Amino acid sequence: MPEADDPWIDKDFEAQVRDTAYFLWENDGRPHGREKEYWFTALDRCLRQREADALLQKEPPQDQGQSGSAEGRDTHLSRKQA
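Request: output the structure for the sequence above.
Response:
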């Protein structure tokens, strides 16, 4: 068992995984003998959520071209109609 003051353990994340696993287990009718299945499913969900949260924290990329501008779209439409 890891030490309680181990700096490499994210206690909040571990609690989130535990709570998610418990929720999933209860939702499925509390089946016996499938603890690892629920733990790993919860771990996967929580890791994906953390990754999504990290991506949302990043600044969006700056627009490098005119492809998104109204002027670029008008030119494209003019060529299509001609």
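The mean pLDDT is 81.
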